Automatic annotation (TrEMBL):
The chain crosses the membrane at residues 7-31, 43-66, 87-109, 115-136, 148-175, 187-207, 327-348, 381-400. Keywords: Membrane, Transmembrane, Transmembrane helix. The keyword Membrane applies. It comes from Yersinia pseudotuberculosis serotype I (strain IP32953). PROSITE patterns: PROKAR_LIPOPROTEIN. This is (AJ251712) O-unit polymerase-like protein [Yersinia pse. Signal peptide: none annotated.
């Protein structure tokens, strides 16, 4: 487990420092702020990089605290039937692929709506899929691999690609688990330095084609000949760090705060409910939460259906200055949901060690993105809507723990 997490942390850390040195060498921000001139001095950039490096390490410390506890139902436990779980997910994935293909609802920058959108929104397979993956992978049958292919197809149809890194990390984790005694895994600095650099450099070849494909799905034309290998590596590195965005927001802090003050007083809390509540109940969904409004300080015509990752520090640094009540409520909601979902994951999995990896990614995402809407409402919290289905279809059932008699 720790080797996989070390790889994950190192990958993001290396990307952070590549972003830092890139800003110094070119004088421009990268990623979402590509083309924006850096107005901070090197010392300020360095301090921001150090703070965000600390946040990356902090995610692991919080993970250790959360996962040191086991949660049970006393003399009862939840048992999950893997085959039935696979069948349910197969049906859900087929339905979602058909819905997205026919209606276009759910595609990035799509903007299409449908009367059945709320149903497909609260049954989005993304959150339950990763839980399913970690539970079923070690005893996987053919239908598991079919489900993986269907999930990849669904997410690509929507114009997403970030899920591929999560699946890759899962496979690294299971490989290490199966080959724990391998001499290869004992190579010094393999997971902290060597493998992260190999992944970044080799990932450029794959990311070039993924980038072209996902943008084509989003309706954005990218000419393959204009995208060099080094450009793909740079874009992949930019996807793995929020440094430029955080530093850019700090450089225009006053403007970002002023724009945030113009938004709805409780935009962050309302944003959390935006993907979960139907339009006929929540009629106004056009407001901008901080992960969107921050970009208006750089691009006044920035799309209202886009978002950026500010990171925990800059997110709340701006939010506490612009909307104090919203900041406190958002912070409480983040803590509450993180604890509740960790307990649910552990209880449903009977404290399966594999699920700890999902908990780490949730904690890391919370500190990296910080928007409850993006981390929870469009992700992990959807598992709450699946729990009744798991019990209804006999996939999950409560049993009395068996006691070994000596």
């Amino acid at each position: 487990m720790n080797k996989t997490i070390s790889l994950y942390i190192s990958l993001y850390s290396i990307a952070l420092w590549i972003g830092f040195f890139g800003c110094i060498n070119t004088g421009f921000f990268s990623g979402d702020l590509k083309g924006v001139k850096v107005s901070l001095n090197n010392y300020e950039l360095f301090v921001i990089a150090i703070i965000y490096q600390f946040i990356i390490f902090l995610s692991f410390l919080i993970f250790l605290i959360v996962t040191r506890y086991k949660f049970t139902l006393g003399k009862y436990c939840v048992e999950i039937v893997n085959f039935k779980f696979s069948i349910l997910l197969f049906v859900v994935l087929i339905m979602h692929i058909a819905f997205v293909s026919y209606t276009g609802v759910g595609k990035v920058f799509g903007g299409n709506t449908n009367i059945f959108s709320p149903i497909f929104s609260i049954t989005a397979p993304s959150a339950i899929f990763f839980f399913y993956y970690l539970i079923v992978r070690e005893n996987a049958g053919k239908i598991f691999f079919i489900n993986v292919l269907l999930f990849v197809l669904l997410e690509l149809l929507k114009g997403w690609s970030g899920f591929l890194l999560t699946i890759f990390m899962f496979e690294i984790y299971f490989y290490i688990k199966r080959n724990s005694s391998s001499r290869l895994l004992k190579i010094p600095f393999l997971f902290s330095i060597t493998l992260p650099f190999i992944l970044l450099l080799s990932g450029g070849f794959l990311y070039k084609h993924i980038y072209i494909l996902k943008n084509d799905i989003r309706g954005i034309s990218v000419v393959s000949d204009n995208l060099e290998y080094i450009d793909a590596v740079e874009m992949l590195s930019d996807r793995l760090t929020n440094f430029s965005t955080a530093a850019g927001v700090y450089s225009r802090y006053d403007s970002v705060v002023d724009i945030a003050k113009l938004q709805n007083e409780y935009a962050e809390i309302k944003g959390f409910f935006r993907p979960l509540v139907p339009n006929f109940i929540m009629e106004n969904k056009s407001f901008s939460a901080l992960n969107n409004s921050a970009m208006l300080a750089f691009f006044p015509d920035y799309r209202d259906d886009s978002s950026v990752d500010l990171g925990f520090v800059m997110y709340y640094y701006v939010l506490f200055e612009s909307r104090v009540s919203d900041a406190f409520l958002s912070l409480f909601l983040s803590f509450f949901l993180c604890v509740v979902l960790s307990v649910i994951f552990k209880v449903l999995s009977k404290n399966n060690q594999n699920i700890n990896l999902l908990i780490f990614i949730m904690i890391f995402s919370l500190l990296y993105t910080s928007s409850n809407e993006m981390v929870f409402a469009r992700g992990n919290i959807i598992i709450l809507f699946y729990i009744p289905m798991l019990f209804l279809f006999g996939i999950a059932r409560v049993k009395i723990k068996s006691v070994a008699i000596k």
